[in-house]
Amino acid sequence: MTPLTLTPGHRADGTAVLTVTGEIDMTNARGLHEAIAEAGGKVVVDLTAVDYLDSAGLSVLFSHADRIELVAPGILVPLLDITGISGLVTVRVQDEEHF
Amino acid sequence: MKAQDADDGPDAAAIGTDVFAADDGIGGDLARVDWSATPLGPPDGWPQSLRTAVSILLSSRFSMWMAWGPELTFFCNSAYRTGTLGRKYPWALGRPAREVWAEIWSDIGPRIEGVMTTGRATWDEALLLFLERSGYTEETYHTFSYSPLHDDDGQVVGMLCVVSEETERVIGERRMATLRDLGSDPSVVRTEQQMLDFSARQMDRNPRDLPFTLTYLHEDDGTARLACSTGIAPGHALAPAFLPATGQAAPWPVSATEPVLIDLDTTPHAGPRRGDWSLPPLQALLVPLQQQGVAPHGFLVVGLNRFRTPDESYRGFVELVAGHVAAGTVSARSYQAQQRRADELAELDRAKTAFFSNISHEFRTPLTLIMGPVEELRHRLEDADPLILEELDVIRRNGVRLGKLVNSLLDFSRIEAGRAQAHYEPVDLARATAELASVFRSAVDRAGLGYDVDCPPLSRPVHVDPAMWEKVMLNLLSNAVKFTFDGSITVRVREESGRAVVTVADTGVGVSEQERPRLFDRFHRIENARSRSHEGSGIGLALVRELVELHGGTIGASSAEGVGTTFTITLPFGTAHLPADAAVGARTRGVVSTTAAPYVEEALHWLPPLPAGAEAALPTVESSDPVAADRPPTDARVLVVDDNADMREYLARLMTGAGYRVTTVVDGTGALESVRADPPDLVVSDVMMPGLDGLGLVAALRSDPRTVSVPVVLLSARAGQEASIEGLRSGADDYLVKPFAAAELLARVRANIQLARLRDHHARWHSALVDSLQEAFFVCDEDGAVIEINTAFTEILGYEPEGLPYRPVHPWWPDPAAEPEAHQEVGNAFGRLLRSEKGSYTVPVNHRDGHRLWVAVTFNQVDEPDTGRRLIVGTLRDVTAEHYAIQRESALASLSTLLSRASGLPEALSGALEELHDLWHAACVLAVVLGDEAAPVLTATDGSRWQELPAGLRDALVGLGTHPKLSPVGAYSGTAIVLEHPDGPMVLWLDLGERRPFTGEDELLLSLLAGHLAQGLARVHQIDQQRETAIALQRAILGPSHLPTGFAVRYEPATQPLEVGGDWYDTVPLPDGRIGIVVGDCVGRGLEAAAVMGQLRSACRALLLQNAVPAEVLTALDHFAAGIQGAACTTVFCGVLDSESGQLVYSSAGHPPGILVEPDGTTRLLEEGRATPLAVRPGAPRPEGRYVMPARSTLLLYTDGLVERRRRSLDVGIGQTAAAVQDGRDAAVDELASHVMDRLAPDGGYDDDVALLVYRHPAPLDITFPAESSQLAPVRKALRGWLAQCELPRHIAQNILVAAGEACANAVEHGHRTSSDTVQLRAEARVDKLHVSVVDTGRWRPPEPAANPHRGRGLILMRALMQRVTVTPGPVGTVVDMQARIA
């Protein structure tokens, strides 16, 4: 299984935050799904430290589209746009400086 | 108002009206018209012009009418009334013209209108008008003129018509024409039908009077037959082909003897409508065809013109027509009857002539039997009582006379029957006539007459039949002697007015004036004429005239009683007057024939006997010497064939008496048997015999080679068959016409036997010569049948003369079924033999006992001298041994050539099998090597595989493995032979197809070839091994067996067939992951340079592995090279490449600079680190260059063979090479290498060693990993690293990473069928594109979003992220190809 770190937490305003680090693929998407499910309610999924996201991970995000917000690095933005998920959930782009 | 009512019209109240006074009759009626009711008003008020016109009208005797006023009120005069108006009078008077002539108004209206408007008169001649003036529509013809009438003011107010009716004239002329035509000269008419057809044609030309006609002729049974018809279709109800004798249904009364008028209304069918008339006839007139006093032989039916009444004139016309038809048929019938009578008479005459001719012929046989024995008796009784001799003389004399008579009669009958077969040849008429005249000299002398023969030569020959001319002269001379008692006889030949004139004049009794016209009549004898003899048939002069006329000549006689007679014959020169085929060339023979003797003898007999001792000179006939004839050739046997017992016995007696052995048979069949059983020296045969006749006998004898040369003399009684015999002369050797003299027969018999013996002698000599020939000799006829052979022929081929003739196809030809090619070969050669004049050929044939022979045939065409027949004579030599020797030699030679050219064992073997296959025309040839392999190794000409062979054959072949080598053996319906193959024993097997014998010669040849093949295979094997070794060695010294990815190399040695030269390239994977790169070039080429190169390469490689610093490697190599002969001055490029970073460290020992091309096309040369070639300055330190290859840049290293050309700077070549790399920088490295080699190749190919090495940075990524999900992250890592080497923008690299990751994930998900499944990821960067391919061993499912939504999204992602995505499912896996644009 591809290594993936899932760190649940909360913001100062109490919003649930799930910080994801590593690559998301078919081998570990299930874990992401479960982590989001566990967080319950509205959750901000922070993908800033994710440098690979494939269709398996996107599927997980779609399945939770109604209750997540995304924080994504610029490198993932084209992918989110192409799949249309950026039209469903709020996406905040994090690391503009990479461009 | 009707016309007839006019009489009861207004009374003559206005009779006194003077305007109508000119004519009492018409005037009265005009006066009675109620003019006030017309536009003209009462006559009192008529203008003067009208009154004048009316009075002119009425006073004229010409038929006229006029019209006046707006309605064109009608007036007419008396002539018009009677001639034209008819029953319309007086109704018509005072009426509008349009009403009066309503029925023809369409014809005349426009004319009148024209006159009224233009004032110009009209003229019509014989215009056909259908008038209704007699109670029916009537065909009339009028000639008329309309002229204008002017009123007092000069205006046209009316018209005057002067008319003459021409109906009678027109119709009369028409009918006369028909009658004239019918009576026109029918001289060409022959038969009744022709006559009728002629009549029909004439009748058909008058359809107005004869709308239709039917001509029926009575048959014997009282019925009538339609012989011809006009104007009515055959099969019309009114025109039945046959009419019964009685019967109501018939449209026409068959038995009418008087003309009958028949209403067609009462017949069931109306008459036919006919061209000129719009309506069909209403009546028909039937007229019997009759000649006075004879019963009718038929009848004519004429459909009558409904527009004319059938009045006297019309009926008369029809009856005259019928009369013509009747007369015509009668005359035709009588002509035919006469013709028949004439034919019958001619037939009677022919029969009479034939009978006469036959009877005359029949006299010949008894005449022979009288004359022959009489001659014999006279010889035998020479010393007998003179009285007996005298009586014998009487018999003989009368026999001669009878013979002469018969001949004359036959001549006549032949001339009459047109069978006189004259052959006119150019003859010196003067000489011939003189010779004939001389025959009579003795008789004339003895008669005490003067004889004046005056025949000076003519200017040119005359064409006469000599036999006929002889008869003419003999008859005339004999006549002259007969009727001349004093004076002389004169024969004269002259040329007068371009003709030959022959006169025979005597001073004899002459012919009276009244007899003279009948002088030449047949059988007419001059009564009471004084003559030397009363004998005479009265046919002599008649025959003379006939004969002279056959020659196109004339004969006349002038005579005066008591003064003499002169016969004058004139004959034309030339051949124009003769039948074309009867004129022949001159023949050389005497004029006087046997015919003369009887004439002279007869003449002599009329004369007083000579004093004793004086012998009358009889003309000698030919050269037959009775004495000589009596002496037969020794021991000759004659076969006499005659059905007449008397004749047979007479002939036998004659022959026996002459010393021959005689056999007699009664008919042709018996003769044939006798001849076949024991051929006689001669056959004497009658022509006429029951069963097989003489001609048939000759034909049968000639068709059989055993009897073909037996001479035959035919005896003919029928002179008519002389011609047939003539035609059969090639068959019969000789013939005689009865009666013949015994001496003559004997002479001919003797001559023929001698001839035959001479011929036999030649034949035996010929046979002996031919038989003594060593070579076989044969003679073929035109059809190719062998008709003669000699002993050698029989010895060589086994066929004996008894079987002759051997007709094609000859029995020695090869069997077409078993050996079609051989059969064809012989057939072709035989064709040449028949067509060519000479030639020679060698062909296979079969001996009678079946064994194969090869024979060389030489032939020539010759013409047989006797018959002109074309023959082919030939000799034939047995060349079997030579043939096989040559065959062996050429087969061995050809096999040797093949083996020496073969570049390997399989090629050598399959070539050898083809050779054997062609040599024997085998169905199949195969070779099985029974080596150590599990399955025998098969090579077959038909491409069969071992397992496909029949099990029986496989077993047989395997079983033969232990059979003695090179000894042919029959195996599985073929022939096998075992020989040594480098891999083990090899069985060679030939299948020659059905029924082909494999002879001893074949076996010998096979053994030889197999031995040769075994040696050849061993040699080829040895060469193979040596070459393999050499190649392995060369390859070992050339370069690495495996190149790292990203590299491509080319190597072209200048010296063939070496695969190595002095150049080299090398790639050396170094322990630290870098790659050592070497390209070098030793001085020279060929094997020596290669040996140096091998050492340097190995040394360089070792040095690199030890210390990967190019400058130090080359420094060390300087020392190494210094110690090796020929290594000095080698140039080397040595570099070390870090394939991850693209850093290249390099040093060059005098080598041409490397070429580097960046993605944007920027080209640079690696010119740093250069120093001298190897071993030039050993020990000197070498410089080093460095260069970091940008991503997607291409490096090319090479040796100078690529760029160096004579008379050209190296820079030019380097520049061209750089340009070639630049062009191909977007191609894969392997493609690029080929591209550069092609671009720079000189026209004749490279003449120096060339080594080439291409590298593109980075090297393509190529990862194969197990199809497990755990592999995905490491693979991605590797890809990410490689993408970094490619120096792509980050987002593009990310897109490629995700797309490739998706493809790999798919491959893992679908490719895991078995644990060994793998996935291959390849990525390659070019200038502006990047290719990624993922190949798995599974099959992708079609996207099913519902079941597995994110998978479908994966493909969508790939397509969205890459520029091109193709997914190709295959049987063993799926290939995903993707392409991204990267610049």
From TrEMBL, chain A:
<dbReference type="Pfam" id="PF01740">
    <property type="entry name" value="STAS"/>
</dbReference>
<dbReference type="InterPro" id="IPR002645">
    <property type="entry name" value="STAS_dom"/>
</dbReference>
<feature type="domain" description="STAS">
    <location>
        <begin position="13"/>
        <end position="79"/>
    </location>
</feature>
<dbReference type="InterPro" id="IPR036513">
    <property type="entry name" value="STAS_dom_sf"/>
</dbReference>
<protein>
    <submittedName>
        <fullName>Anti-anti-sigma factor</fullName>
    </submittedName>
</protein>
From TrEMBL, chain B:
<dbReference type="InterPro" id="IPR013656">
    <property type="entry name" value="PAS_4"/>
</dbReference>
<dbReference type="Pfam" id="PF00072">
    <property type="entry name" value="Response_reg"/>
</dbReference>
<dbReference type="GO" id="GO:0005886">
    <property type="term" value="C:plasma membrane"/>
</dbReference>
<dbReference type="InterPro" id="IPR001932">
    <property type="entry name" value="PPM-type_phosphatase-like_dom"/>
</dbReference>
<dbReference type="InterPro" id="IPR036890">
    <property type="entry name" value="HATPase_C_sf"/>
</dbReference>
<keyword id="KW-0597">Phosphoprotein</keyword>
<dbReference type="Pfam" id="PF13581">
    <property type="entry name" value="HATPase_c_2"/>
</dbReference>
<dbReference type="Pfam" id="PF02518">
    <property type="entry name" value="HATPase_c"/>
</dbReference>
<keyword id="KW-0902">Two-component regulatory system</keyword>
<dbReference type="GO" id="GO:0000155">
    <property type="term" value="F:phosphorelay sensor kinase activity"/>
</dbReference>
<keyword id="KW-0547">Nucleotide-binding</keyword>
<feature type="domain" description="Histidine kinase">
    <location>
        <begin position="358"/>
        <end position="575"/>
    </location>
</feature>
<keyword id="KW-0808">Transferase</keyword>
<feature type="modified residue" description="4-aspartylphosphate">
    <location>
        <position position="686"/>
    </location>
</feature>
<dbReference type="InterPro" id="IPR000014">
    <property type="entry name" value="PAS"/>
</dbReference>
<dbReference type="InterPro" id="IPR003594">
    <property type="entry name" value="HATPase_dom"/>
</dbReference>
<dbReference type="InterPro" id="IPR036097">
    <property type="entry name" value="HisK_dim/P_sf"/>
</dbReference>
<feature type="domain" description="PAS">
    <location>
        <begin position="769"/>
        <end position="837"/>
    </location>
</feature>
<protein>
    <recommendedName>
        <fullName>histidine kinase</fullName>
        <ecNumber>2.7.13.3</ecNumber>
    </recommendedName>
</protein>
<dbReference type="InterPro" id="IPR036457">
    <property type="entry name" value="PPM-type-like_dom_sf"/>
</dbReference>
<dbReference type="InterPro" id="IPR011006">
    <property type="entry name" value="CheY-like_superfamily"/>
</dbReference>
<dbReference type="GO" id="GO:0005524">
    <property type="term" value="F:ATP binding"/>
</dbReference>
